[in-house]
Amino acid sequence: MGCRFALPVLGVVLAATACSSALWPRAASSPTTLARGRCTIVVARPGGDWSGWDEQLCTASAEGAHPRQSWLAPLVAQAVDDAEVAACGAPRCAAHDRAVRFYVVPSSTPALISERDDETVAVVLSSALVDRAGRDAGFYELAFAHELARLRLGETCGEGVQSDELLRAGSCDREALGWLTRLHPNDEAWAQRERMLAGARSR
Questions:
Q1: Which of 64, 154, 156, 170 is least crowded, fewest Cβ atoms below 10 Å from its Cβ?
Q2: Three-state DSSP class for residue 125
Q3: Going by DSSP bridges, is the β-strand pair 99-105/120-126 parallel, antiparallel, or unpaired?
């Protein structure tokens, strides 16, 4: 996967409770947390060549590394599975064998970028956004369900090829919200999570 960043707030100058997938067998490999320079990296699903990402994101040291949280890896891995259950019924039904990583990069501004290709899915979160989301599994489900919408519907999520990225992101979020509200019909916090993610993407 190539690295195409345009988010100055992240510094290169880089630029609710989960439920149903617990009924499915977990992957043989457990999620892990890595420290790479200033990054905390959650390996939700292993594989892929991440050397470009590690170099681009993690070697700059304008701010110190985000402290590793023991709860983050299992929470993110469960959220990844739950998002896929919401989207198409079972873990790996949309992302298939793609490797999945969440990068946490130190920044005082809530921000998010992401990218996906045939082999990998990467979600990059600023530490301020992770601190704001805390242990809200639904937040991470929505962040990954957005990626699944891109995989299932295409990069534009049904918008025209001339549409701008914020319009496309909004369409992907709406699709993801539809899946997740069906999975968690009694969770009333989805609109708040969508606003948080939309604000982070616009940085």
A1: 64
A2: strand
A3: parallel
Residues 6+ apart with CB under 8 A from 2: 52, 115, 117
The model's pTM: 0.82
Cβ contact 11:70 at 8 Å: no
The residues, ordered by sequence, that sit 6+ positions from 109 with a Cβ below 8 Å of its Cβ are: 9, 10, 126, 128, 203
Taking the C-alpha atoms of residue 10 and residue 18, their distance in angstroms, rounded to an integer, is 28
Distance CA 174, CA 193 (A): 12
C-beta of residue 182 within 8 angstroms of C-beta of residue 86: yes
User: At CA 136, angle to CA 51 and CA 177, rounded to 5?
Assistant: 85
Neighbours of 28 (CB within 10 A): 6
pLDDT in tens, 119-156: 999 999 999 999 999 999 999 999 999 999 989 988 88
Element (H, E) at 39: strand 39-45
What mean pLDDT value characterizes the chain? Answer: 82
- Number of Cβ atoms within 10 Å of the Cβ of 117: 12
* Interaxial angle between packed helices 137-153 and 72-88, expressed in degrees from 0 to 180 and rounded to the nearest 10: 40
